[in-house]
Amino acid sequence: MNFLNRSLIVAALVCSTGMQAFSQAENAAQNLPTDYLTKEFHAGRRQALRDMMPANSVTAIFAYPERVFSKDVNYVYHANPDLYYFSGYKEPDAVLLVFKEMQTDGEGSYNEMIFVRHRDPAQEQWTGRRLGVAGVKAQLGFKRVYNSDEFEKFPIDLKKFKTILYDDLPDDASGSLKELVATFKSKGDIKDVDKRLLSDLNLISQRGTPKNIDRIMAYIRPRLDGEAYKNNPLIQELVAKPDSATLMDVKAKIDANPSGLALFEKATVELRGVKTPEELALLKKSVEISSIAHAEAMRAVKPQMSETELEGIMLYVHKHYGAEDEGYPPIVGAGGNGCILHYEENSATKVDNQLVLMDVGAEYHGYSADVTRTFPANGKFTDEQRVIYQAVYDAQEEVFKLCKEGVNYSSLETKTREVLSARLIGLGIIKDAKEVGKYYPHGVSHHLGLDVHDKGDYSGDLKAGMVITVEPGIYIPAGSPCDKKWWNIGVRIEDDVLIGKSQGTLLSIDAPRKWQDVEKTIAEKSIFDGGRLFPALK
């Protein structure tokens, strides 16, 4: 790579910025994908947001900052999912304003505007094409578009609005984005707040239920020594009496006087939590690509392979089918490494005759899959591995039955713990159901979409159109207080499910799940079989 100031190194912009908004014909003519979300989709999402906003309000959504990877090189840029969702814009240094009511100035009427990164041919030669003002108007359908450096002098007084909705403001922004944020805070008289406290209050409001109050308290207790927490009456009320009645009282008080951040979170949770047909088309493709890749990894696995090599096989399949990226750092853990929930090193030089846990999901046009499979590198489960695998599989099957509209989200976790605890007790690994968290330390589900842990309602009932994961697991690291024959067995089976009116639809069906099918798939020939692609290193 040629040397250049890090502000210019954003290689991802070459292909991933404005291209998505061309018409299908234009994309085809330029040898680009033809299934990006359309400008009509994004306009519809803005109107849906506007319909939810309170009277006399404005919503501001900022681009994410660029982040340094190493010295003068940035990480590949990833757009703010909310900004992309509501605008289609995928570049840095931007802010979108959506107004509840029509506004009027000397140029006419408007109810939205966007300030974007300016065109710069010299920098674009290094970092890729930018849409600029003209491109955003033509390709994204906005009528009011300005360069970001015009925001400071733009004649708009945000203080006149009764409510300003906005997301967590980036505090590590630099350059143009830093100036945009500072101008916004000045124009709207936005005060600095303790972001962690606001996030926890929102967590209590959105996800707190009588069934998970212990988990909520365990999450916030490490921060209770902070000054903002000591001075917050709602937190202190809950700390003084952490029971379900107090929780519901605190939730009601939070909801009675919501901040602009809380209102933004509530609106985006509701909108992004239920996918539109356009989103489902992309999400289904992302999951299908991931599932095919998992099956191919099973066919290709050999005990002498490294964790990294298996990761590379999956990534190749993703790229073959057009996935731009992965939705999260791939997890490929053999043996004891599979007992580490977010093991990302993938550095073991041989997977040997061990179980391999692969949690890898493609990202296709911004939408992330999240699929996990666990399989024996030598092609056959041992008796102990098979028993644990079957326990996880059976828990998943029971949860699948609940994946339909009207079922409370929390019941998925209840059912998972019920099944896993009974199995672990039966195997003599635990003595009491309360111990299940020792070997099943995470939750069974999360929403899926533009973020791998997507926005969505975690405390209410499931709705048709939601896409969630179902991912029970059992992890028994070496040294656990049970028979040694169970040590270093880590099993997670994770699938992606579309919630329907009467039942869910398993989207990740192309990745084998039953242990018999897993063994059968491993025995099949892989496209990567037939000799090494490269000579051994000296």
TrEMBL record:
N-terminal signal peptide: 1-21
Gene3D superfamilies, alphabetically? Creatinase/methionine aminopeptidase superfamily (3.90.230.10), Creatinase/prolidase N-terminal domain (3.40.350.10)
Where would I find the Aminopeptidase P N-terminal domain in this sequence? 37-175
* GO molecular function annotation: manganese ion binding; metalloaminopeptidase activity
Q: Name one Pfam family in it.
A: Peptidase_M24
UniProt GO BP: proteolysis
EC number(s) reported in the record: 3.4.11.9
Obligatory cofactor(s): Mn(2+)
Q: Has the keyword Signal been applied to this entry?
A: yes
Per the similarity annotation, which family is this?
Belongs to the peptidase M24B family.
Instruction: Name the chain's protein.
Output: Xaa-Pro aminopeptidase
Return the SUPFAM superfamilies for the record.
Answer: Creatinase/aminopeptidase, Creatinase/prolidase N-terminal domain
